[in-house]
Amino acid sequence: MVLIFSPNKKVVFLDGNREVVINPNVMSRAVRAAKISIRSGGGPFGAAIADFEGNVIVVASNGVTKRGDPTRHAEMNAFTKLAGIRRRGGVKDGHIFSNFVLYSTTEPCPMCASATHWARLPIVVYGTGIKEAKEAGLGELEFPMEQLASAPGSSIKVIIPGYMFKENLEIFKMWAELGNQVKNY
Question: Cα separations (Å) of 104 from 13, 26, 114, 125, 153?
Answer without folding.
Answer: 20, 10, 14, 6, 22
